Amino acid sequence: MCVAKQNVSPPAPGGGPTGATSSFICYKVKCPKMPDQNITLQDQFGTHIFVIKAAKTLCAPASPSGAFLDASSPF
């Protein structure tokens, strides 16, 4: 399943993979144990409470050549 947001103004900076290169590479991470934290966030659907837990995986956009990163991207 793919998800896309349309008519975003202003557009998000940095770009990212598109089309056939829309994939990610994920890595297992080992972080210090921290207590869970509850945070409250609001979006167009309402107010929600989320539980923040220790990270287990880090995923980054990937393409065979890395070409999706344009020259103007600070990353």
Description of the structure:
The chain has 75 residues and is an all-beta fold. The chain has a domain at 22-62. Helix content is 0%, strand content 35%. The chain is built from no helices and four strands. The protein has strands at 23-28, 37-43, 46-52, 57-62. A two-stranded antiparallel ribbon has the order 1-4. Strands 2-3 form a two-stranded antiparallel sheet. Strand 2 and strand 3 form a beta hairpin. It starts with 22 loop residues before the first strand and ends in a 13-residue tail after the last strand. The model has no long low-confidence stretch (mean pLDDT 74).
**Approximate strand percentage:** 25-35%
Give the SSE string: EEEE
Q: Catalogue the unreliable spans.
A: none
- Please give the order of strands in the largest beta sheet: 1-4
Short description:
The chain has 75 residues and is mostly beta strands. It contains no helices and four strands. The model has no long low-confidence stretch (mean pLDDT 74).
